[in-house]
Structure formats: C-alpha cells, structure tokens
Amino acid sequence: MSDVTKTACCTAAQPLMQVVYDRNVHTVASHRPLQKTIPLEGCSAFGGKGADLNPIDLLAMGLASCLMIVMGKTAEAEELDIVGAKADVSYDLVNYRIAAIKVDIRLPKKLAADDQTKLEVASKKCPVFLAINSDVKVTVNYLWPE
Questions:
Q1: Distance between CA 90 and CA 102 in Å, rounded?
Q2: Angle, nearest 10°, between helix axes 55-77 and 113-123?
C-alpha cells in the first residue's frame, strides 16, 4: 500500500485536509496527500450563487458514494459485478437543517435474490450512513432491473 493510500483515508494522525475561507460565502477545501481541491459555497439559503457545490451536496453525494463503495467491495468479494451502478441523490432542508436524504441506487443487472439482499445489507455498513444522526430520515432504494 502506498503512503498516499495509507494517509488518504481513515486516520486522523495528521491533518489531511484544510479549508480556506477565500471570499464571501465561499471556501476552497484541499486534501493534502492527494493534492486535490474542491471549491465550495454556501447553499442558496446562505447566499450561495449556485456556481459551486455546497457542503450539503458533498454530504449527500458522499453518502451515496460510500453506500456504493461498500456494496461494490462486497460484490467484488462475492465475485459479483455491479460496475455501472448509478445513484440519484436528493435532500430536504427544514429550518437550515438536513431533514432527509434520499438515495436511489440503480443497479446495472439483476442478481439472485440472496445476492441482492447481501449487497443491500452490506451497503448500510458504510461509515457515512452510520454517522448520520437518526433524526435525519435517510431513504435508500435499490432499483434492480426486472
């Protein structure tokens, strides 16, 4: 495993990321080991102009990505193929708070019912899903072809 891989996930020994407030309602987030940046702005309720992603977008997309990554890791271990799976993600805010996140995962091909269930159950072990407060209604739909 490379040093970048070792430090890019799941450790807090050194600050891996930095966020700089660079102008009104705007930041630039950087991941130091990967040398990648993401411009972020406040959502429209906080004066964002819609030119960049907002932190809530990242949370919702991160949830969908995490669900599919854990599902994919399980599929790989079981020698199943879900390459090409896609997720549609939406969220609702109530009083500036995330009230609900909906993720529809569209799988590319039907698998045996037991395999589908195994992948669906495994996906819910993703750390992002587990970290979301139970006050937030999270709905995950797995859409398998007929």
A1: 5
A2: 140
Structure tokens at 61: 């997309």
Report pLDDT digits (tens) over 86-100: 999 999 999 889 999
pTM: 0.87
Type of residue at 104: D
Read off the amino acid at residue 25.
V
Cα–Cα distance measured from residue 120 to residue 108, given in angstroms and rounded to the nearest whole number: 14
